[in-house]
Every structure is written in structure tokens, then in C-alpha cells.
Amino acid sequence: MRQQEERIIEPALAGRAVELLLAAGLSSRREAERLLDTGCRSLAADGSSRRFWRLGSLGEGWLLIAPGGQSQAELAESRAAWRIGRHLRAREVPLPELFACDEESGLLLVEDLGDVRLHDIVAAEAAGKSHPAGEAKSCYRAALKGLAVMQRAGALGFDPTWCWDTPRYDLAVMVEKESTYFLRAFWQGLLGREVPLGVVEEMRAIAGEAARAPAHFFLHRDFQCRNIMVKEGAVRFIDYQGGRLGPLGYDPASLLIDPYAALAEERQEELLAAYIGEIAKAAGENSGQSEEAFRRHYTFLALQRNLQIVGAFAFLSQIRGKTFFRPFLGPALTALAARLQEEAFRPYPALRALAGSAVAALVAR
Predict the structure, then answer these.
(1) CA distances (Å), 263 to each of 65, 72, 246, 253, 256, in order?
(2) How much is the pTM?
């Protein structure tokens, strides 16, 4: 469940929220004003700087989502959430319903999906308990089935100008926002180490291998168990506003290597096989790549995602002071070091050595 905070919506945004409720035909003015006055509760975000408020009863009302500030980038992110979300909804991707958007402030009014994330179900099962919202295995399979739909259907008619960050996940994104991010935020920022000779070159070569994957599909780019809600037995996807065009393998890798869930390798392989079956059914005779080629691309894309995770957790815990992420940093780093022991990464000894020493250095802190 998202932690509630004592933070009341400011009057200017409350006024805009009333107008959104009216524009969407969800309430009268009197009802909207009363709801904003007595039935509005703030919710905490994970890594995002965006702000959230719940209107009405849990899972039966609406959510207000506002940018963290009014910079051009923050407003662009809000507009991306609205435009990409409406596009995906039209393609029958399982997202929350989007009711209204105030372009000037970036305020969004969307469906409240409740508080149950796939992560909650996984955590309950790890503790030896069953969760009333469902069973993890079936939720993962449903999420991967929905992902296969989103990747193909979401790419049809997708307009890259909707994107607020970059229009495509490509080599430049891999190098700057994943490899370099890992070195800057974690290796240099958190551990305070100098980058060894050869590491930058090896990272660029690995990104080059990952960039060989066909990249004309819709990419969520943060498809993990805390961004998958479960409501009334069905999975729904959130935090898709960073979506863009990209390869098939990145999003399933994000879900399966997700340190929040820490899935065993056997479960990862089982689910990956199920996902491959889903994309084969969706593509029919026009898959465009063999399973062997997909798996090779997946291996390198999973490493890119792992670098991004470690960099992000280091940045969010150290710079943003979000201590929630700190316990997951070690498992993410251990998974990175383990992946680098695979045969595909034998040509990259400098990075393999760096990851091994990083695990020991983090433990020693």
C-alpha cells in the first residue's frame, strides 16, 4: 500500500481539480468542492517527483496526479502520460482510465486502481502467505500477456512527439542513461571510485550488442512489479509515461530481473518461455526474429536494465534521500555480477571485475 502523507493539495490545484471533475462529467460542482475539501488524501510516490492525491474511497474514486514542479520537462512528462495513455487505452492495453487533463498545470485525473501491486502479492507469498488479490504466478502470466499486446498494438500509430524524454530507446540512451548513469551515480557517486581502464569501452560494446535488437515496438521502460496493479483480479499497468519505441526484450527483462521480487532463475526462465510463447502467438508468421536471436538480444538488454537499476537505486537513495531503495541495491548489484559471469560476457573482463569488486565494496560500507 502506498504510504499516506500529511500533505494537503494547494488551493490553486484544488480549483483546477474541481474543473477536471466537472469536465469529465464525474460530479457536480458542489460535490467536487466537498470532495476536495474533505475527501482528498495525499499518497507517497516511489522514485517519482510527481505528487498524488486520492479522491473518494480506496479503489472506487479517482487519483489526481500533478508534476513535482512547473519546469518544461515536468510538464512535458505530464502531457506524455496523458497522450500516451489515451493512445494505449484506445489499443485496449490494460491501463487505468484517464478522465481529464489540465494542460497548463499538468494535473491529471485518472482512475484509482487501489493499493495492491504485484509486489504486494509476491511479498505475501515470500512470507508464506496467500494474498486475497490473487496468486503471483497467474498475475505474472497475465502481465506478460498484456505486455505482448502493449508492445505490438501500442506501436501502431504511436507518435514519437508524445515522448517527453527521447522518442526511441537506442544506443545513445543505453550509453548515457544506463551505462554512464551506473558509473556516475553508483561507482563514482556512491562508492567514490575511479573508473578502471577499459570499462567504458566494454560498456559501449555491450550497448552496441543490445542495440542490434529490432526497436520498432512500444517500450514501457519501467515495467516492474511495483508498476503493475491488481484490481478485481485483473492486472493494470501504470507509470508508462516514459514510453517510447524500443526492442521487445527490454520490458520482460525489467519484470523478470526486478530486484523488488527477486524471482529465482528457474521462475524467470519459466516466465520468459511463457512470454516468448505470447509474442509468437501475437506475431504469427511475422515475428521478424528467431527465438535464438531474441534470447541473445534479451541477454544484453537485461544487462543494460540491470545497470540502470543499480544507478537509479544509488541516485535515489543517496541524492534524493529515498531510503526505500537502499535495501534493494545489494540484490540488484549481486544479480548484475552474476549475469556478467554468463558466457556472452566473457569478452568483457574489465566490467566483470568491476562488478565483482563492487559487491564487496558495497558490503563493506
Answers:
(1) 31, 38, 24, 12, 7
(2) 0.95
336-348: per-residue pLDDT in tens?
A: 999 999 999 999 9
C-alpha 281/C-alpha 43 separation (Å) is 39
Runs of H (alpha helix) within 114-225:
118-126, 136-153, 171-174, 180-181, 199-210
On whether the CB atoms of residues 248 and 217 are closer than 8 A, the answer is yes
DSSP 18: H
Q: Is 218 helix (H, G, I), strand (E, B) or coil?
A: strand
Opening angle at CA 332, ends 152 and 192, nearest 5: 125
- Domains of the chain, each with CATH number or no CATH: 4-111 (3.30.200.20), 118-364 (3.90.1200.10)
* Angle, helices 349-364/326-339, rounded to nearest 10 degrees: 150
Strand order in the sheet with 40-43: 4-5, 40-43, 51-55, 62-66, 107-111, 98-102
Give the residue among 146, 145, 125, 147 at the shortest CA–CA distance from 134. Answer: 125
Q: What is the tens place of the pLDDT at every residue in 279-293?
A: 988 776 555 678 999
Q: Is 257 exposed, middle or buried, given 0-12, 13-18 or 19+ CB atoms closer than 10 A? A: buried
174 Cβ neighbours under 8 A, 6+ residues apart: 207, 210, 211, 304
Three-state DSSP state, 168: strand
Residue 101 in contact with residue 109, Cβ under 8 Å?
Answer: yes
